[in-house]
Fold:
Amino acid sequence: MKRFLLAALFFAVLVLIWEVLYRAKIWSPVLLPSPQQVAVYLKDAAVDGTLAKATVVTMRRLLIGYIIGLLVGLPLGLLTARWKLWQDTIGTLALGLQTLPSVCWVPLALLWFGQTEAAMLFVVIMGTLWSVVIATETGVRNVPPIYSRAALTMGSKRLHMWFKVILPAALPFIVSGMKQGWAFAWRSLMAAEIFVTILTGFGLGQLLHYGRELSAMEQVIGIMIVIVVIGLLADKIFFSPIEKFLHRRWGTSQA
Amino acid sequence: MQRIHRHRSSAAEELEVIAPSKLAIENVSKSFKGASGAVLALDRVSLSVAEGEFVCLVGASGCGKTTLLNIIAGLEKPDNGTVQADGKPITGPGRERLVMFQEPALFPWLNVFGNVLFGLKLKPSLTNKDRHDVAKYYLELVGLSRFERANIHELSGGMKQRVSLARALAPNPRVLLMDEPFAALDALTREQLYGDLQRIWKARNKTIVFVTHNVREAACLGDRVIVFSPRPGRIREEFAVDLPRPRDINSVDLAVHATEITKALKSFGQPEVAAAE
Structure:
């Protein structure tokens, strides 16, 4: 509770500084709106449904792309960890493409798929996939051989070995890869939405873009806040509990 | 105690009714490729272990005793020779012969109970209720009932090895293969575990092959102590320890046996250099 109050105080002070800067009129109010203006924009956007609609559109793209990225990346990672040929081919490809900032996929996605949902999905998948492949491969390679030896003597084989021993043992690596994949996907999706208008859905990135076009700074800042909050929530609701469980089980630091 | 002469047999011995051997190892050789060429880890090793016997393998590190244990476990294959369990060749790992390793091989993603349950879940003949009851029984046997929900990292070294023991015992293997399981523990914990292991071995009627470099430990636990010499790994001598059980590792009688075995170990002197391919 004390931690919560201190954190709340911290953010209150941030808003206060913002308000002071606004009132000092160092910058034009067009460039720096007041916290209140941003709050009003967010309230109106929430009431008329624009915000909810855009969030749904963006989250749908993100989740579908992310899940496909996971579903493809996990098996690919297992294959690259298991067979030399896969490691030399897909493994090397993954390593190379992972260093490519996922925004770089946007021009290619547009030319291939046009201004469609498919282009958005493609960018998200490319952002997720390679991190997951590499994390899974690293995780599996780092499983101490003693675990599989022990499991072998107890009669574990093939699929049972993969699902009950290798995968759980590699879980800490896989989760950090999933987290990285999520961050990459989120960033590349925002970039794609800002660059490209897609008629089938109007996402948060597009709201941000039109905020700029209309010089509606309260919209730009409001949407930025929404994007930050979504990122935080994803971490707190999804990744944090998993990481806490891993820390508790494995006994790797942290309370 | 008696020193057993391995390569002579008298008429009396030949005519003796011998208990059927649980494990029969004949002329097993195994070499590994090392940085400086091939190393002969085991050189024509023969050993038979009777049902219910407690056999200890001692020797300096690098003498191939762990390799022999892995071969019996089915985790490694010999280059030459045959290994049989109950008269059938060993072709791979099997839950009839479970291994307890020196390193912590417990699964950190499962709690204590989950670890003990792991091998039981691989026995399709059991119902879930059976599995739970069996796991509880063995946790009780090693004295860790109160810790069944604990995570592995929360346990002390001694408790971890107790859980390992329970996990190895739970699927009810006939043979237990133990690879220096107590080497990393403090003396006090070790002594407790010597008592527990002897008690459990009797109560559950297991055949145990126990690898150690600790001569006292071997004399304390083994019905027979097999002495290896290193490079190439060979069986050099074997001693029968006929002290009453349960044995106390600090007893004088035991020390006498240990001294004898240590003398044999030291007598090998410089290890021969293996010229294996």
Remarks:
- Chain A has a mean pLDDT of 91.
